[in-house]
Amino acid sequence: MSTVSNEMLSVFLADDDADDRLLFEEALMEVNNEVKLTTANNGELLLQSLDENTPPKPHLIFLDLNMPVKNGMECLEDLKKDDNYKDVPVVIFSTSCQQEAMDQVYKKGANYYMCKPDNFQKLKQLLKHILNFTSEDLLVRPTRENFYIAS
């Protein structure tokens, strides 16, 4: 089995905070510099970008929850209804670490949940952790107890 980090990755990120997008990109490149990252500042732009850049399907989609226009919850719902993207693993990546939000996105089909860490090294650890999953691990949703990834 190959890990996700051993193949050329296509990763999409929707986050309305430009600084968070930049930090995510820098951390991702330090963890695996063979990643094609496509970013958007809201869920609507992410969906448009997916339609413009697919095929191939992305390996992973990271969604912030709190965004204008189309938030992460709405975007997740749209992704899981779309036959083209319903099988693409979605990782919620948000400052909101409330149990209620985690429960909601789990019920709506997100694959994993990661709270935005408070420093760059922790962000790199989180991304390294998720990129070390096998492709099969990402496609099979974990139990609710293993849904949250902590640094």
UniProtKB/TrEMBL annotation:
SUPFAM superfamilies: CheY-like. It holds the Pfam family Response_reg. Keywords: Phosphoprotein. Residues 10-131 form the Response regulatory domain. PROSITE patterns: RESPONSE_REGULATORY (PS50110). The modification 4-aspartylphosphate is found at D64. This is Response regulator.
